[in-house]
Amino acid sequence: MFSWDRFAAIVVKEFTQVRRDRLTFAMMVGIPVLQLVLFGYAINMDPKGLPMAVVSAESSPFSRSLVHALEASGYFRVVAQPATESAARALMAEGDVQFVLHLPADFSRKLQRGERPVALMEADASDPAATGNALAALQTLNQTAVDRDLGGALAGLRAGPPAFELRVHRLYNPEGITAYNIVPGLMGVVLTMTMVMMTALAMTRERERGTMENLLATPVRPFEVMAGKILPYILIGYVQVVVILVASWALFRVPMVGSLALLSSILVLFIAANLAVGFTFSTLARNQLQAMQMTFFFFLPSMLLSGFMFPFRGMPGWAQAIGEVLPLTHFLRIVRGILLKGNQWGDIALEVAALAAFLAAAGAIAMARYRETLD
Amino acid sequence: MSEAALAIDVAGLTKRFGGKVAVDHFGLQVRQGQIYGFLGPNGSGKTTTIRMLCGLLTPDEGTGTCLGFDILRESALIKREVGYMTQRFSLYEDLSIAENLAFVARVYGLAHRRRRVDEALERLGLASRRGQLAGTLSGGWKQRLALAACLLHDPRLLLLDEPTAGVDPGARREFWEHLHQLAHEGMTVLVSTHYMDEAERCHALAYIAYGKLLASGTAKEVVAGAKLFTWALEGEGVAAAVARLRGAPGVDMVVPFGTRLHVSGTDAAALAASVSSAAAGNGLRLSPIEPGLEDVFIHLMRRAPEPVVAAREAQG
Predict the structure, then answer these.
(1) Would the CB atoms of B90 and A220 count as touching at under 8 Å?
(2) For chain B, where are the E strands, in sequence order?
(3) Looking at the complex, does the CB of residue A3 fall below 8 Å from at least one CB of chain B?
(4) Considering only CB atoms, which chain B residues are within 8 Å of A286?
(5) What's the CATH code of the domain at B275?
(6) B54 vs A219: CB contact, 8 Å cut-off?
(7) Interval A267-292 mean pLDDT
(8) Is B18 in the same domain as B135?
(9) What is the pLDDT, as a whole number, of residue A176?
């Protein structure tokens, strides 16, 4: 027989326990708020104002009108005017610009003669979602971009086919295959999730099961505990990396242009950074459930604000600022840069430095929080 | 061994947890080679004191040495020479017996690790179970394993926090024989317990309540020091006598044991008058007896001034 009294006893007990676990209570309110803010305000599937470099040998009314029309579309923002093609390439490789517009030396002369010169737009298509809308906006742009300049004797050019041709080159991922972007990124996501969680749980488990007291009574030093706990998970992280790399090559044919040796040396840094986060959580969490919740609280912004799921440049400034703090953001740029763009050490040095800074900060917090006593 | 050096010598130890005083100006001297019993009600500060002795907690006040090392500044050195057995089983339940011991041996950087683990297993009769996971052991075996683990690095001092709680009498007796053997070899042992038979097997005792040391010395000295007088009353009318004796002049404590009653108090004359009339009124046999340790301890605790907020022993 169902007893309302027994049922009520369980309900009352559950409420009492939930109320007492303040962190769980805060998470139940905090997670929806976090999701609302991130999904509602931070994510933008139609990024605008994407950085563009213009390589132009001349400065004519036509080139100015074209650039103006590009900027007027809202999708493009000129941030650099490199003198040489190689300088433009470097900007693209390092991810400083997403587009490079090349105007040939005789652009305006040919245009005026009706020879329909070619303006070349190179796009960093490693993230097809980030460039898709901008490139779509280009399609009709050449029909009207310079119309205002075609007055007088040139008015005839307005009627016919567009006065110049706008050719698009998608670099790094010419076919716009989403998997090329997602699969290498997944490496970072999987590592973030598992590494943070495993260390957070490993340390919290010691405390929850009471083995911490025994460990603290031995001569073992905090750094020895931290390093010793972290190393096995670094190795596990490498196993995950190998699995993902083999899968991306065998199943998705993701190009691997750059150096795998460079990638694997940076992986140590990235894995260690995540482990340091997990270690810090473990010094804060009182039990394994709280450690899981903290992991989730870290993982959610990592997924959403790093540029893994949604274009980084589409986010508002505050969201980008948070994203810049997260190790996944920098790792994504590195792994995509190496695999798809063939980035060298020099192209990614800044991102690596950011990872190193994060590791130093998280490691310092973890060490400072770790107690050799039970106080 | 009476002139031996002090293994533990602390004074004025104080520890507060968020305003609550867990240990209040506690002093203790334990000679080398002694088995020193540490008694007191739950939450009296025993665990907190032991943790301060081995460097797991930092005292808020007080000074002292443990094995000649300063407890405040040299806890790293103390840890190397002390074997600490926690109240709750604190080895790894998902490691086997041998793996747990090997881990401990590594952490202490012991030479000839394998041999020492084998010897420890042999000595404690765990050799046949070496591959068994620690989590699947019964209470008595867990206790043996924990003791083996804290003896592995040949400590000079053992701190045992209620090591025999929940262990059957046979295993307890064996455990104590082992302790005496170790003490005979020169080991100093500080052991907290709630069992009176164990307290009586210690060379010396300390009784603590509400964080304060209430009595110390040999069992005899502690009993004598309490200046307690006890009478035994025996017969069928015991139950009726209990009600009559409680609150009677000179009577501090009435403890029934089936058909037997122990009545204690500090005022010998008033107590004698009260028990005589109770014995006569209920047809009981009356005889003066030596008060037991338990009588003395309960008496001490009742007499101790209870602080406004009861001291809390750190969870462990």
Answers:
(1) no
(2) 6-17, 20-31, 35-39, 61-66, 69-70, 82-85, 157-161, 188-192, 204-209, 212-217, 229-234, 253-257, 260-265, 285-289
(3) no
(4) none
(5) 3.30.70.100
(6) no
(7) 90
(8) yes
(9) 81
